[in-house]
Design brief:
three-stranded mixed β-sheet; Arginase, Chain A; 25 strands; disordered N terminus; 875 residues; elongated; 4 domains; eight-stranded parallel β-sheet; alpha/beta
């Protein structure tokens, strides 16, 4: 029988019906001496019944699976009685009688285990391809949308034409803008930006947020004398007015709108509006806190009502709460698809209400009203001195999960820099470099459509440095390094934990996060220190004027941004016995072709490929293992098959060793280019993969652990202490990387992989006591009835017959969190536990997963508690 082949195929001999095989694979049963009559097509592998293999030709792109050439059942049904189809067509009627009876056919031999595995893999591959095609049928992957480029920068000298007439030392002064512009020119950032012409906001645009009465009042200030201006200013909180205030406020609002329009039209990728007066404190009918018109709120309404956007995210990192923006949108009745169209997030100093603007609405309990409930997120800091780690934790733990769930189409940032170190009002300790990191994290949202509008910031040194760092991030520069490893303070963790608990009811992305509250000792300390937690009051805290940490020069930009390394010789590594093996040469050739189609390859700097040397391979692998792989060069196919079968899921051919050395060497070449400053980052398109390879064994298609070698190589060639982070987002756990570095404190590894319901063995994990910020994020242990099993003492490690049923004891955390379950097992002698995640039972005594009918009652209970229905009968 010949399974799917082109029409030109012709095989002499008897064909036996077999299940369909994947394209380019044939199983042929022939009489003796007929092997020469096989016609083989390019890319086809033929297996004879005796196990002999015909070497395949190179694959042909036009080869398609067709119907079998043997006689189908429909042909037999169409024949007259007594006539059966044969290889050459219908045969004559068989003679009747005993003498004419045809001998019964020989019994069909069942396929061997390798063939059965191959057929099953082919069926699974066909099913996976069908599911992938079904999932992608609505996506247009051929037509790529043009990506906007360029960062807009809007600035107008007219914005410096107003100041406080009766207080020359007022902190909100024209020098804020002029000093920023001077700094951006010195850093060479202005010439790299696309200039955006400032304009006045129209009255219709201002009325999108503010009332007509308030607009008329502001317009009247242009003709007022100084006495009337001061009298009117005194009726509001922290406001001064100037004859040019109305004109400059309109110009500031219009400038933000000009940048937003450029970004939304695709002319720019992102932008920065250098404006004053600020705006986020201004309410619908009230000026407040140096703010006259609420520019960011006007821009959000404009984007929604004039540009048709459905979801806008406003991020306010000014040290003061933007109560004006919150009040405008907290009960906004305009919704899109039953969802409010504006999400407001503010991180600000609160001090339990003691910090301006002294409003209960600034606390995390204010979540919006009506249809806007849940779309106001406040993260209040209750003490001064918050650092980079506190702000970055707030973004990572609270803002970004919600933002990715919200999927905004535009991000507007009320960019105040009064939380920077040295600011006399904020009294925080945030470095200017931190604002580059915060901006960089926001660029992952809304397709990069991010617009920053200047708000506060009153220390000219830290203000200019912070704006420069944020603009550099908008331009795509690498984020400046932070001071060093740090953890959020207990007060910050408490604020984040409280906000998470409040908003988990509104956002599913937060519902899986459970953070423990402060311990009893911490609560006692908080009570003893009072409401401010023992931190000096704003008047007592000194304001540092000398900021030596800000004098470090920005990192030098490499001449090229991204490097790319690839070598076609890596395709010589292939599976000689299975052309449909998932780890095949097309993985890298197709990837490179796609990069070329998208025009990404020509934008990269091609790096030279090279082979990894033996001393480099010995950085992670043993000499004996390297020698074993080197010995595979020149082996015959049968010996190569035997060599690969020694390992788990590994195949080898004569060129495998060279391809593996080339894959590792290309990754090392990328490391060289990055460390030398030749490129900012790099991509290595390589195979075979590497993260499963152990120090002395191949595993999971992997021969040499390329990433582990790169980490060790970087530490060696850097010539200085180097901390390396390895992020493995492969769906399979990188066991090789973990085992190589599990005792190396210089390399941190993190994985995101799928966990099988019944893993054969667990990995070796250890807690990280030197990272204190992880200790506060442990899941709590609840002493409530739930599926954790305690078996009778007559069943130690399932070695004897159980004498009683399993029963529920308590919930405790695993060895990978705080190890409370292990401690409970040692103290109580209860070695059996049940995972609520996959209903698997684990025995701590025998270190293995087990199953027994005695466990079924507890599993049925756990399944009912988790899913609300009964456990299927098949389990």
């Amino acid at each position: 029988m010949v399974s799917p082949t082109p029409p030109s195929a012709h095989v002499q001999g008897n064909c036996v019906a077999q299940p369909r095989l994947p394209r380019a694979v044939r199983m042929v049963s022939l009489r003796a001496g007929q092997s020469d009559s096989i016609r083989q097509r390019p890319g086809e592998t033929i297996f004879l019944k005796g196990g002999e293999q015909v070497k395949p030709f190179p694959p042909h792109p036009d080869l398609q699976p067709l119907t079998p050439t043997c006689n189908p059942p429909c042909l037999a049904a169409a024949m007259p009685p007594g006539v059966s189809p044969g290889p050459e067509g219908p045969s004559a009627p068989a003679p009747s009688g005993r003498a004419g009876r045809r001998a019964p056919p020989p019994p069909r031999r069942s396929p061997g285990l390798p063939e059965a595995k191959r057929r099953g893999r082919a069926r699974r591959l066909h099913q996976e391809v069908a599911e992938l095609q079904d999932g992608l049928q609505h996506l247009d992957l051929a037509a790529e949308k043009p990506v906007p480029s360029g960062t807009g920068l809007a600035y107008d000298k007219e914005l410096t034409s107003f100041h406080c007439l009766w207080d020359k030392s007022f902190p909100e002064c024209p020098a804020r803008l002029t000093s920023i512009w001077t700094k951006l020119v010195e850093d060479g950032l202005v010439e790299r930006c696309v200039p955006v012409q400032a304009r006045l906001a129209t009255e219709e645009e201002i009325l999108l947020v503010h009332s007509p009465q308030f607009l008329a009042l502001m317009a009247s200030t242009a003709d007022m004398e100084e006495g009337k201006l001061r009298a009117l200013s005194d009726t509001y909180d922290s406001v001064y007015l100037h004859p040019n205030s109305y004109h400059c406020a309109r110009l500031a609002a219009g400038t933000v709108l000009a940048v937003v329009d450029k970004v939304l039209s695709g002319e720019l990728r992102n932008g920065l509006a250098l404006i004053r007066p600020p705006g986020h404190h201004a309410q619908r009918e009230r000026m407040e806190g140096y703010c006259l018109f609420n520019h960011v709120a006007i821009a959000a309404r404009h984007a929604r009502e004039r540009r048709g956007l459905q979801r806008v995210l406003i991020v306010d990192w000014d040290v003061h709460h933007g109560q004006g923006t919150q009040f405008i949108f907290e009960d906004d009745p305009r919704v899109s698809y039953n969802t409010p169209s504006v999400l407001y997030f503010s991180v600000h100093r609160y001090d339990n209400g003691a910090f301006w603007p002294h409003l209960p609405d600034s606390d995390s309990s204010a979540v919006g009203r009506g249809q806007g409930c849940g779309f106001t997120i406040n993260l209040p800091w209750n003490q001064p001195g918050m650092t980079d780690a506190d702000y970055i934790s707030a973004f990572l733990q609270l803002l970004l999960p919600v933002a990715f769930e919200f999927q905004p189409q535009l991000v507007l940032v009320a960019a105040g820099f009064d939380a920077a170190i040295g600011d006399p009002k904020g009294q925080m300790l945030v470095s200017p470099a931190c604002f580059a990191h915060l901006t960089h994290m926001l660029l992952a949202l809304a397709g990069g459509k991010v617009v920053l509008a200047l708000e506060g910031g009153y220390n000219l040194h830290s203000l200019t440095e912070g704006v420069s760092a944020a603009l550099g991030s908008l331009l795509g520069d690498p984020c400046p390094p932070l001071a060093g490893p740090a953890a959020p303070c207990p007060s910050a963790l408490q604020s984040i934990s409280k906000a998470l608990g409040i908003h988990a009811q509104f956002w599913p992305s937060l519902q899986h996060v459970e953070v423990s509250a402060l311990s009893t000792e911490d609560e006692g300390v908080e009570e003893a220190l009072g409401e401010t937690g023992g931190v000096p009051s704003p008047v007592e805290l000194p304001c540092p004027e000398a900021l030596p940490s800000l004098e470090a020069p920005p990192p030098r930009r490499p001449p090229a941004c991204t490097g790319l390394v690839y070598d076609e010789r890596m395709t010589q590594h292939y599976n000689m016995w299975d052309s449909q093996h998932p780890e095949r040469p097309q993985r890298v050739t197709r990837a490179l072709s796609r990069l070329q189609e998208l025009g990404l390859e020509r934008r990269c700097l091609r790096l030279p490929p090279r082979l990894a040397t033996e001393p480099e391979l010995l950085l992670c692998h043993s000499p004996e293992y390297v020698a074993r792989l080197r010995a595979t060069v020149g082996l015959r196919p049968r010996e190569l098959h035997r060599a690969g079968s020694r390992y788990n899921s590994v195949y080898m051919c004569g060129e495998s060793f060279e391809a593996a050395c080339l894959a590792a060497g290309c990754v090392l070449s990328a490391v060289d280019a990055v460390l030398a400053g030749q490129v900012q980052n790099a991509v290595a398109v390589v195979r075979p993969p590497g993260h499963h390879a152990e120090p002395d064994a191949a595993c999971g298609f992997c021969l040499f652990n390329s990433v582990a070698l790169a980490a060790r190589y970087a530490q060696q060639v850097a010539g200085r202490p180097l901390r390396v982070l390895i992020l493995d987002w492969d769906i399979h756990h990188g066991n090789g990387i973990q085992h190589i570095f599990e005792e190396d404190p210089r390399v941190a590894t993190t994985w995101q992989q799928q966990q099988s319901p019944w893993p054969r063995a667990s990995g070796h994990c250890w807690e990280t006591p030197h990272w204190p910020h992880l200790q506060s994020w442990h899941y709590p242990c609840l002493h409530t009835p739930s599926p954790v099993l305690s078996m009778p003492s007559a069943w130690p490690a399932l070695c004897t017959v159980p004498t009683g049923p399993a029963f529920v004891s308590m919930v405790l955390c695993s060895r990978y969190v705080a190890g409370h379950m292990v401690a409970h097992g040692d103290a109580s002698g209860h070695p059996m536990v049940l995972s609520f995640a996959d209903l698997s039972a684990w025995c701590y005594d025998c270190e293995a997963y087990i199953h027994h009918p005695t466990l079924l009652p507890a599993k049925i209970l756990a399944h009912r508690l988790k899913f609300g229905n009964e456990l299927p009968a098949l389990l």
